[in-house]
Amino acid sequence: MKIFIAGATGAVGLPLVRALTSLGHQVTGMTRPGAGSDRLRELGVEMSFADAFDSEAVHRAIEAAAPDVVIDQLTRLPANPADIIKAMPDDTRLHREGGANLLAAAEKLGVGRYILQSRGFYLEAPAGELADETARLRYDAPGQIGESTRTIGAYEDRVLASRSLDGVVLRYGFFYGPGTWYRPAGAIADQARNGQSAIIGEGNAVWSFVHIDDAIAATVASLYAEPGVYNVVDDDPLPVSEWLPAFARSVDAPEPKRVSVEDALTAAGEEAVYYHTRLTGASNGRAKAKLGFAPRPLLWKGA
């Protein structure tokens, strides 16, 4: 296939480019100039430096690539996870405006399939249950998280409602593994070893992770699968109170400290509290059935 990837040098984009080219697909990667473009050049793929916010440039880039599939892997997240909330407005704008430009161009130019990176950790589900693919994103989440979920949810709806292309929404869990924050040499491990990890309140929020390589395998499979929504998460959804101490042990870090909700609200804000007390895990049954998804066990479970 001819495949156009927006965000081709990100945590998902770059390994996805490698996987697709190794399978013989013709890939065009859209990225910003810089070190990332050098990595794409090493892989021998076509490059596009179109600005996602420039609708005409995006249209020209997709028109020149003439792809069968457009994959939106655009993100604008910080190198330091401590800055995630501050960076979220830029990421939200990228999905709202850049995503709209990509989708409009794909529809106008007759692209057959459109694959969207979405979030598998902001889903609504009753307490104690896992969210399936019918779940909505949590539009009532506080602050910048709510802005993000409402934007991405509306984007999902537009992709799935398109009459001119097959829409696929991949709701990934939190990424771990090479090139991510959650790896032995990554930013979260550094924070843990520096004694900066903390569990807020009861730490009862349930997180769903996915290894980056398993996410790539599911994304490749989605090129051919039935359109619709897929939760791309592993089989080990765990509350923060369990996974964070296990992660700390796995990277030889001290036990995370405990912080009250009240103190966390003052020091870190309501979004941080939300991550530790309100998130819901997700189920992956549809991805297993339709994508042949077979995620590995969470690497630090039981550490």
Explain how this protein is built.
It is built from 11 helices and 13 strands. The longest helix is centred in the first third of the chain and has 25 residues, at 84-108. The protein has 303 residues and is of the alpha/beta class. The model has no long low-confidence stretch (mean pLDDT 95). Helix 1 crosses helix 7 and helix 3 crosses helix 4. Strands 3-2-1-4-5-6-11 form a 7-stranded parallel β-sheet, sandwiched between helices. The chain has a domain at 2-173 and 210-233 and 281-291: Rossmann fold, CATH 3.40.50.720. The radius of gyration is 19 Å and the shape is globular. It has helices at residues 13-22, 35-43, 55-65, 84-108, 143-161, 187-193, 212-221, 240-250, 261-267, 270-277, 285-291, and strands spanning 2-6, 26-30, 46-48, 69-72, 113-119, 166-172, 174-176, 198-200, 206-207, 209-211, 228-232, 238-239, 257-259. The N and C termini lie far apart (42 Å). Residues 3-232 form the NAD-dependent epimerase/dehydratase domain. InterPro entries: Epimerase_deHydtase, NAD(P)-bd_dom_sf, NAD(P)-dependent_oxidoreduct. GO terms for molecular function: aldehyde dehydrogenase (NAD+) activity.
